[in-house]
Structures are given as C-alpha cells and as structure tokens.
Amino acid sequence: MFDSIISCEQCNNIRMFAHGYDSIKKKPMSKLNGTLKIYKDGMKMFAPLCCLFAAYFGNVNTMSYSCKREIYSRVKNAQVKYVLHNNKSFEIYEIKDKQSEIIVDPRPSRKGEQIKLIRNLFFKEHDSSYSIIKKSEYINLKAQQLSHCDSANLKQNITSDYVYLIQPVRSVYEKTNVFKIGRTNQENFSRFNNYEKGFKVLLHIKCKDCVAVEAQIIKHFKSKFRQANEYGAEYFYGDWKVMLKDIVSIAIASLHC
Prior knowledge:
Elements: E1 12-21, E2 28-41, E3 44-47, H1 49-57, H2 65-77, E4 80-85, E5 88-94, E6 100-104, E7 114-125, E8 130-133, H3 135-156, E9 162-167, H4 169-174, E10 178-184, E11 200-206, H5 210-224, E12 226-227, E13 235-237, H6 240-255
Helix pairs in contact: 5-6
C-alpha cells in the first residue's frame, strides 16, 4: 500500500538538505526548503496525497517503512475534502504545518537515525480556479465519469473486428500443413458457418481494423512462409504454432495504436 504513494514532482519542488547538528540537543538536523501548491478552505490548507509526502519529508522516494507508516497515520487522521479543479475531482487532505520536529531520517543510508527536521516551506495557493465540493458531489462526478467511460467503450466496440487462422478441410484430409488467414466483423464465430464442415479453428482474436491487420499479416507471412497458391491468396504452408504467435503479436499491437 505504502509503495504506491509517491511524491509528486509536478505539484511541488521540495528538497531535504543536510544541515549539521542541533547545538542544544546534539542531534543531526536537516532542512526542508521549497514551495508547495495547496488548496484552501477557509484558513485550512489541503493538498493531494502525493503532495503530503513532500510536505512532511521532501521529495524522497526511497523512504523506510516506518516513515511511510508515519505519513499514513497522519493522512488517516487528517480532515478530508474534495476539490474540483481543471474538470477533475479528487480527494485532498489537510496539512498540519509543523515547522520542526524529531523524525526518523527517511534516507536508507541513515539506517533509522533520528534527526531534527526544520521546515522552511512556502505554501502557494493554486493559480487556476477551483472549488471545494461536497462528498456527494464528488461521488456523483465520479459516477458520471465512469458512465462516460463505459459509453465511450461501448461506442468503440460497436464495430467488431477479428482475424483468425484455420486449417481448411482439404488440408485436414490431405494431412498437409496449409493454413488460412481470415478476417471478419461477425460476432459469435458466425463467420465459420460459411466454411465446409471438417475444418479446424486454430485462432480467433480481436483486433483494430481487421482489413488492415489481415493485410499486414499476409504481407508478413509472404516473407516468412511459403504461399499455397493452389489453395488461394490467404493460404500458407508452415508451422501453425509459429503462425499463431505472429498473428497474436500483430493483432494485440493494433489495439494499442
């Protein structure tokens, strides 16, 4: 859980500097210098979870477990608000501004050494407009966002595109290693109803723009396998397992375009 929480370099620029020793307590002393962008609600200051790391310990990504545990306990007990900023809604947490305290040094090289940490931070309110919203508004906005994503995905999937690899019935009966590349927009394997019974389906996989993907596969196969012209333009001699891997690779790559 803690390892997924990291400081956000885009939100702030806070650094920890070695600063010698406390002359009174004779303990190592460090400083935090920098600016932290915050949200305000009345006199209270708030920041996203990523920024709390920097506010408490600086931009130190390799903290000890105990330091992460301490930050988590502070966040857990902090007041939570919700903000709408740049058309995005998210949680923000109250910052308890302690100018100095004794902490366990978060740097692994210090091996749990206690230091006096002095914070010399400048808190700057976000320039662009934002609004503090209620939890119910935050939940509704998140629900709308999810609904929009679902609708977008539904629209994207209206047109179904697949490519497939089969061994035609003639090749099965003649026991030859001839296989056919094909494409379809039909769902539920309906395309295979048009083939003569006795063929074998080796692969049926989703892709983006099956026309383009089939053309790319055929071009690739022409350079790698021998074309079975006596069967047709989409038929090739070769190892079906190797063909399978190549088709899967090309089809998956098309989905990320």
